[in-house]
Task: inverse folding
């Protein structure tokens, strides 16, 4: 039994059963499916990213851990390929009891018959819309056929675990960042020959595939006024000379993510106005990374970014009072990063070593059609923080040199 599963079991009440589903493929249209995205909590406990699997945790007088997995017929393998054998799943997960997913109803009925005191059900509470049909059916059957004292939410336990990253998790995030660095270097090398947002997005996708990676989220390629929209994903307009283009993109490595934003001039040279605004954002980005350390709350972290931006906008006479900052900066300073891009976390926890966060100050000026954001991924350490993405260029003069070489 791995230590993550052991932690969950330790924190479950006696006479409990817990269910964690891997998920299933979502229908896109007719007989087409979206690419499968595993439930990250399931992956966190098992290391698996396979649909139609179920982890069952039982805590009575003894504890039991079972993995229910799909068996594929020889005919279905001809269409959809083979699945890992139960022996290979055992080696991957160290879960000793692996059963056919088709037998889960029978197993649960026998479990409740032989353990009539089971009265607690642990689930990941989420909106019905995010629950797959198999998950819904199984939970409804349990709740309708057995008397349960309480339903418990697993998510608080996962938040406590996943907020602090282990060494191997940090390694995977670094690998995802390395891929993003390679992509951004390629963007800079080719930017002057790229005609617009869609072409640049195509370059990102091409480089991701070459690195055996995927988009961590929908890539944002926002030129000019489009950068005023935080989640602009149309990526459809041609570049105009003298515009900036904001590129917010992420890579994946073994389910872990990077999240990087850089803003560059499409013609390779910042205008004087763009220089002033870019340097304000860059200075806040760097000051926050230098300042942040254990013991700071997330609220303090976010307020510090807002305060620094406000101060610098006042100094440059872009605003006349601190309250005006909300017109030019309307998002948070950062978020936890890991298996999810906006990784689950306990918002009440102060920053501790092992946490990975983004730092992403920005300025958005509607009247000028300018949006600038600079985002790095940092690791909280005992002494302060380490910028995991420091190799990805962001100094203004270096960006110009790399684009124009």
Result:
């Amino acid at each position: 039994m791995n230590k993550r599963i052991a932690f969950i079991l330790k924190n479950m009440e006696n006479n409990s059963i817990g269910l964690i589903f891997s998920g299933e493929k979502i229908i896109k249209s007719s007989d087409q499916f979206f690419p499968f995205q595993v439930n990250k909590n399931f992956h966190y406990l098992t290391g698996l990213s396979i649909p139609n699997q179920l982890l069952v945790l039982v805590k009575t007088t003894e504890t039991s851990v079972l993995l229910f997995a799909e068996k594929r017929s020889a005919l279905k393998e001809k269409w959809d390929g083979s699945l890992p054998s139960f022996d290979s799943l055992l080696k991957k997960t160290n879960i000793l009891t692996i059963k056919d997913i088709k037998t889960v109803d029978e197993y649960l009925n026998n479990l409740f018959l032989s353990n009539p005191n089971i009265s607690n059900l642990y689930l990941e509470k989420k909106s019905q819309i995010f629950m797959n049909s198999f998950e819904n059916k199984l939970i409804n059957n349990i709740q309708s056929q057995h008397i349960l004292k309480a339903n418990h939410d697993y998510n608080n336990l996962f938040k406590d675990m996943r907020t602090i990253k282990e060494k191997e998790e940090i390694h995977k995030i670094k690998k995802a960042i390395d891929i993003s660095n390679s992509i951004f270097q390629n963007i800079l090398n080719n930017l002057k020959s790229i005609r617009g947002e869609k072409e640049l997005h195509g370059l990102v996708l091409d480089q991701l595939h070459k690195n055996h990676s995927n988009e961590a989220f929908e890539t944002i390629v926002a030129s000019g006024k489009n950068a005023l929209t935080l989640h602009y994903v149309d990526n459809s307009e041609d570049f105009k000379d003298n515009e900036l283009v904001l590129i917010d993109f992420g890579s994946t490595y073994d389910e872990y993510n990077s999240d990087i934003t850089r803003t560059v001039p499409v013609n390779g040279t910042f205008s004087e106005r763009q220089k002033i605004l870019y340097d304000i954002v860059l200075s806040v980005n760097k000051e926050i990374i230098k300042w942040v350390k254990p013991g700071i709350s997330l609220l303090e972290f976010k307020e510090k970014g807002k305060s620094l931006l406000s101060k610098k906008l006042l100094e440059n006479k872009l605003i006349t009072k601190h309250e005006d900052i909300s017109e030019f900066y309307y998002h948070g300073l950062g978020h936890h990063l890991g298996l999810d891009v906006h990784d689950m976390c306990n918002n009440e926890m102060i920053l501790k070593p092992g946490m990975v966060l983004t730092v992403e100050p920005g300025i958005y000026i509607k009247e000028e059609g300018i949006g600038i954001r600079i985002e790095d991924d940092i690791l909280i350490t005992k002494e302060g923080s380490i910028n995991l993405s420091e190799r990805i260029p962001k100094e203004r003069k270096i960006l110009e040199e790399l684009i124009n070489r």
Observations:
- The chain has two domains: 3-162, 167-404.
